[in-house]
Amino acid sequence: MTTVGTANTASEMVRSATTTALRVASRNLELYDTGNVAGVDEVFAPDLIDHNAGAGAGSAIDGMRALVTAVRDGFTDTRHRILFQQELSDGWVVLHWQMTGTHTGEAFGFAASGNPVAINGTDIVRVVDGKITEIYHVEELLKLTQQIGTGAQPA
C-alpha cells in the first residue's frame, strides 16, 4: 500500500506517482484541470461503473465526459490539489482532493457568476489494466452552489 499526504496538484501527482493505480487515479482529476474531454477514454474503461452517476447520461463513461465538459465550460483556472491519497489492495485508490477555480461560464444549470470557488471531494476508484473500471465520488455540491452565489440564476 502506498500512502501520500500532500497538497500537490493532480498534474504533479501524475508525474511523481510510484504506481500505475496512483498515476491513473490522479490523471482522473487532471482531466478537469486541463479540460481534456478526449482523455476520458484514456483514463476510464468503456464499461466503467459509476456508483454515483448523474441523471441522464447514456452510460457511466458518457457521464464522466459530461462532468469534465461541465467543469471545463463553467470554470477557469481550475486546479485540483490532492490532500490525501492511498492505494489499497486490488487496484483501489482513495483520493481526497480540493478543487479551486472561478465560475466564468454556465455550469450545472447556473449562468456564470464570476465568483471564486473552492470545494473538497473524495473519489474511490478501482484501476484495472491501467484504466478506472469503478468509481465512487462525493463532491461538496451544496457548497459549490452557495459559492456560485444567490445572484446566479439557472441558465
UniProtKB/TrEMBL annotation:
SUPFAM superfamilies xrefs: NTF2-like
GO biological process: polyketide metabolic process
Gene3D superfamilies associated with the record: 3.10.450.50
Pfam families, sorted: SnoaL
Domain of life: Bacteria
Stored InterPro entries: Cyclase_SnoaL-like, NTF2-like_dom_sf
Protein name in the entry: Ester cyclase
Taxonomic lineage of the native organism: Bacteria, Bacillati, Actinomycetota, Actinomycetes, Mycobacteriales
